[in-house]
């Protein structure tokens, strides 16, 4: 079988992921592997896709190999997919699969992104392998990789693939501004971070409508005009001091122009089932902040041009990014009512310092980061100090008193006599602490000992160190 391997890692031959492919190549010598380093050669490929298109068209199987960067594939892969769709290659009916390595932080959204774009090209999708970064060094990981490849071969030989989605994004009509301007205040600094190109007329009108309906003054930062030196290359140069290896000044621009705001609105046109290569580059390059949720407590809003309702995976990414970063999602405006509603909620969140607790997306994502940074604290010093200061190291092993109490309770419920004596007291005991809180509650404003203030709300919503940073920024 002829296999075309698209190496999407910016690290090229030093990629962790590509070594899994090379291992499979040695284990299955009867198949032909041709490698294309799309991650390191993307600038050349954007100028001429002739050779890679010919290799893909001649292959029996196309294999994407890449690391997961900030919820999806690296920005270099986004650029490659855009170039692939534009080159006119005929890949209809071609089998395709993928191998990724990560710490399983939103690998599902990365895989779905590749699948959605391959379906656009009429390809036959085989569900990919999501491996841990260290899996290849373990016997279990190697066996899982071998079984995956055997399954892929079986799928190709037996003409088996995943069903294509029934609904695809539809063309979006021209946006007609519909929101009346309201009086503006200078109370808060709100930045609109947009990938706004000359052809994005719909997005431009949507941003203008938001600015009209929003009660505070805004400033627009168009990242389409920023002189990016390139996408994140995973070099870890920033791990020690937070300084990016590129000399384009992005790290300073990010920290002094965008992260100093009180609220942020992100605006983009949907491109290839994502926010597009430029916005993905912006997101990837934020790794100069490591895994530190430095904007937690800042409310976010989104303005999206395109058929957002049809983009299930993109909707997941937008919500998950806010949850992991602990930012209140004021809404996603993709039509006039949605933009107006988002503007009003964003203003409310600013005025009342409103921030909800994290849901599963945020709690689960931060637990992965917590364990990763604890293990890598020797190299990620800034991340480690941030996690310590903000109480992210909430390991259950540290709650020894609670653990011992659960052991005693477990012994009691396993004893038939004790269990019979307890009766319904077990449920009563579980509810008792909450009943005390409810019993002591009084209407808001009637407790003279209660101090309801902006500072108190901030401290409740945001870790203390971060709350101090927010207050200092707003002075």
Written description of the protein model:
With 475 residues, the protein is of the alpha/beta class. Helix content is 46%, strand content 14%. The strands form 2 sheets. Strands 1, 2, 3, 4, 5 and 6 form a 6-stranded parallel beta sheet that branches. Strands 8-7-9-10-11 form a 5-stranded parallel beta sheet, with helices on both faces. Helix 1 (16-27) packs across helix 6, helix 7 packs across helix 11 (336-352) and helix 10 packs across helix 12. The protein is globular, with a radius of gyration of 25 Å. It starts with a strand and ends with a helix. The model is unreliable at 453-475 (pLDDT under 50).
Low-confidence stretches: 453-475
CA-atom Rg in angstroms: 25 Å
Q: So what's the overall shape?
A: globular
- From N to C, what is the helix and strand string? EHEHHEHEHEEHEHEHEHEHEHHHHHHHH
How far is the first residue's CA from the last residue's CA? 65 Å
User: Number of helical segments?
Assistant: 18
**Biggest β-sheet description:** 6 strands, parallel
Total beta strand runs: 11
Q: Please state the average pLDDT score.
A: 91
The helix/strand class is alpha/beta
Helix fraction?
40-55%
Percentage of residues in strands: 5-15%
Oligomeric description of these chains = single chain
Key words describing this protein structure:
six-stranded parallel sheet; five-stranded parallel sheet; 11 strands; alpha/beta
Describe the structure in brief.
The protein contains 18 helices and 11 strands. The protein has helices spanning 16-27, 42-47, 50-58, 75-87, 107-120, 139-157, 201-213, 250-258, 277-285, 312-325, 336-352, 360-375, 381-389, 400-414, 416-422, 425-440, 454-461, 464-474, and strands at residues 2-7, 32-36, 61-67, 95-102, 124-125, 129-132, 185-194, 216-222, 263-269, 300-305, 329-333.
